[in-house]
Specification:
This protein has 195 residues and is an alpha+beta fold. It has four helices and ten strands, in the order E-E-E-H-E-H-E-E-E-E-E-H-E-H.
Length: 195
Amino acid sequence: MAREASVERNTKETEIKLKFTADGSGYTDIETGIGFFDHMLDGFARHGLFDLCVRVHGDLNVDDHHTVEDTGIVMGSAIREAAGDKKGIHRYGSCILPMDEVLVLCAVDLSGRPYFSWDAEFSAEKIGDLSSEMIKEFFYAVSYTAGMNLHIKVLTNGNSHHLAEAIFKSFAKALDQALSFDQRITDVLSTKGSL
């Protein structure tokens, strides 16, 4: 059975259609109206080997806040739905990822309980046409709607473009690991019997 989800969310601020496939090949078709954000979502899908189709029409005449945050809300919902009952998956995933001078740690637990820890600072206020502060807001929204523990910690800082790429790619690798199956796990990996 394909582990995928299609989610739509329409408000006065944004209209979003997103399709996420956990067992993909890295195929992407992304248009958010924010070029650098598209680049980050593309990197996430390609390095996690997810398929990701996103269409966002947001109030960019105001700023990029609603577009980025609401995309995170929809992305988290799609990840949660695609994960299904979580039987047989690793549940946990982590990655320490280098991007030139930058080094980022990301750890994920698909526990069903949302928690977000962020230890990152950007030297630039904007990266391309994306406000750097919105990267934190995106991952906060993903973690809470997906019901995951998500920890992102910068071990070595540097260029803001490199830092953003390392964060998105390390999240991709950690999530891919958490969603992957282990034949030794016959139910859910929890003493409670459910996640």
